[in-house]
Amino acid sequence: MVSASLRGRGLESLPLDEVKGRSLWADARRRFLRNKAAVAGLVLLVLIAVFSFTGEWIAAWSNEEIDFNVIGSAATMGMPSFENGHYFGTDDLGRDQFARTAQGTRVSLMVGLVGTFIAVVVGTIYGAVAGYVGGRTDQIMMRIVDILFAIPFMFVLILLLVMFGRSMVMIFIGIGLLSWLGMARIVRGQTISLKHKEYIEAARASGVPGWKIIFRHIVPNLLGIVAVYATLLVPDMIMTESFISFLGLGVQEPLTSLGALISEGSKAITQGAMWQLWFPFGFFVVTLYAFYFVGDGLRDALDPKDR
Amino acid sequence: MTPLLDVRDLSVTFAIRGEGDMPWTEPRQLRAVNGVSFTLNPGETLGIVGESGCGKSTLARALIRMVPAEGRVLWQGKTDLLSLAPRAMLPYRREIQMVFQDPLASLNPRMTVGQIIAEPLRTHHPDLSRAEVKARVQGMMERVGLLPNQINRYPHEFSGGQCQRIGIARALIVEPKLLICDEPVSALDVSIQAQVINLLAELQRELGLAMVFIAHDLSVVRHISDRVMVLYLGRVMEEASSTELFSHAAHPYTKALLSAVPIPDPKAERAKRVIPLDGDLPSPFRPPSGCVFRTRCGLADADCADQVPLLQGNSKHGLACHKAWVADSV
Prior knowledge:
- The structure holds two protein chains of two kinds.
- Chain A is an all-alpha fold.
- Chain A has twelve helices and no strands.
- Chain A has one domain: Orthogonal Bundle (MetI-like fold), CATH 1.10.3720.10.
- Helices cover 72% and strands 0% of the residues of chain A.
- Chain A is elongated.
- By secondary structure, chain B is of the alpha/beta class.
- Chain B has a domain at 249-330.
- Chain B is 31% helix and 21% strand.
- Chain B has helices at 56-63, 90-95, 113-124, 130-143, 160-172, 190-207, 218-224, 242-247, 252-259, 266-271, 302-306; strands at 5-16, 28-40, 45-49, 70-75, 79-80, 96-99, 178-182, 210-214, 227-232, 235-241, 312-313, 317-319.
- Chain B has an eight-stranded mixed beta sheet with strand order 6-7-8-3-9-10-12-11, with helices on both faces. Chain B has a four-stranded antiparallel beta sheet with strand order 2-1-4-5.
- In chain B, helix 6 links the parallel strand 7 (178-182) and strand 8.
- In chain B, helix 3 (113-124) runs parallel beside helix 5 (160-172) and helix 5 (160-172) packs parallel to helix 6.
- Chain B is globular.
- Classes of the chains: A mainly alpha, B alpha/beta.
- Chain A binds chain B through residues 1-3, 5-6, 11, 16-25, 197-199, 201-208, 212, 216-217, 220-221, and chain B through 64, 66, 89-90, 93-94, 97-98, 100-102, 105-113, 119-120, 123-124, 142-145, 147-154, 156-157, 167, 170, 174, 199, 202, 206.
């Protein structure tokens, strides 16, 4: 009857190709791309990532090779130069800083991304389940988070590294264990406010099982907040790892990270080898800034009401 | 004829915990719905009216077990929905669908219209192929007056009235027997209200749906309902067929409500006597003793505080009042 009335009005002559809708994600992408600082940050991050993965191929020296011309007199011979192939100079042992910086950036980025990945997956699911189920389950799950939060994180991480030896895996485990706590709390709070929306009620009323409601209705509506928090978590993780490395407890040689390089470089400045500090430090600062700009841009793009 | 729905003595009690209560503090009891009984035949529409906070929406949610309820809800004279295990309730969730008040809020903003309408179908008929689901969704969209080529659009790209049509399509796609409409038009403009009401009435005729229609707008209820139930503070005050109630209302509360409905004729409107209701709805934590309406009733005396009036009368007109009688309608 209704369709008949539609046809009666001659609407069947309209082109009835399917119209493509514009999703909220597409809207957010447009807003993000209009934000110059955020796009600049993203471009920088991509460049840094590309450098960290390809830098060692470009480098004239591998990160383990020792340049015997330089060893022992790095402060006078090891400065950045194109002639001997040490674009960023060498360290005290005559190792190429360009290759080492690329390697250190890669390790730092990986620690940041893996830690954040664990936080996003575990924290989102944990928080969404606690918030959606509610009641006693929620109480117990969140008290566990509170207890873990109360443990001095750095202390435990240092103990772990001392007891089980210094390795990448240990750092991943240590950071992963605790990075999801903040995410779980944020996600739980958001879930509770989403839980009472009518579309969740509609899904419950028509018999959609709980886990499907969580993954189909709650998680997609949380992802905005999660994405913002995750981009701000990456520099946090990088900073933590660098601090551990600065203390000399991070990754083991010949692996290195930005924190470890900065630590070595800061010892070298007394001899005047400033390049040993400036290059890793520059990459460190630029990476963090870029992440913060991207995070800011994401927040503006995904939550336009907040501005 | 077996009624589709036979509700007996339905009550909903919420345990409310105050802010800052200790874990061992006894929660306060709030009776949102108190001993409501009614029957609903296939194809019939029951209108439920009452002020905000009188338990209309809670009653609707109790029928589909979205809130904990006591009493009996007999489906087709056989199954007590309230006694079923959550899993056993699933097939009945297909038979009873719901349309919500806020059209936009009842649609997930991250899903396309097609996904939203298909959700109940995918839940209850997981064996259907993609093409079949899409064909049915488009057929249903056309039926509720949406262009089927809009299937990939998102809720925020539609107007309020269109969103409500999407909500109706979602409810009807699984061919339910009962549709619960929780104030489906109160968030819409008056002109759009009429369109949506007419659509509902038309679909009801075509599909033989029974409806529970909740509203606080009496003219809307009058237009669509076969029978009307008046709720006050979780209790039924009066229940009668639509024509009977609007011509021979007996309960003082119903009379006051009806007198407040504007008449679209300035002369008649000016001549009309509005029965004022003094005061506010009493706190549902401490409802008045006896008749819950006595604190605002013009007829109330000492007797009303003693005894709770029972719903009396015949199947055509029931009334819960010590002071008024259905007799004056004959």
